Amino acid sequence: MQDEATITVNGARLTDSESRVIRLAMASFADILANELAYKNEGIALTDQYRTDVALVRAIIDGKAQRTQ
Predict the structure, then answer these.
(1) Number of Cβ within a 10 Å radius of residue 7
(2) Residue range 50-62, pLDDT digits in tens
(3) 51 — alpha (psi -120 to 50), left (phi > 0) or beta?
(4) Which residues pair with 12 in a beta bridge?
(5) Hey, where are the domains in the chain?
(6) How many CA atoms within 13 Å lie on the side-chain side of 43?
(7) Which residues contact 27 (CB under 8 A, 6 or more apart)?
(8) Model confidence pTM above 0.90
(9) Please, are residues 23 and 4 in contact by the beta-carbon 8 Å criterion?
(10) Do the Cβ atoms of 7 and 19 come closer than 8 Å?
């Protein structure tokens, strides 16, 4: 298994276990967006933005993308 992503929150570097929690939470949130919140009334635009953001963060965590500033 590969090492978890290096994640820093407010200047504190997370442990591998803490980073794993973030990765799994992102996956869970993506599932919720896909299955429960998606396209209910006025939440369409917000759901789409969250999906985009989740996909980018997951790609960064997985080492498949880099942040562009």
Answers:
(1) 19
(2) 888 889 988 988 8
(3) alpha
(4) 9
(5) 24-69
(6) 10
(7) 58
(8) no
(9) yes
(10) yes
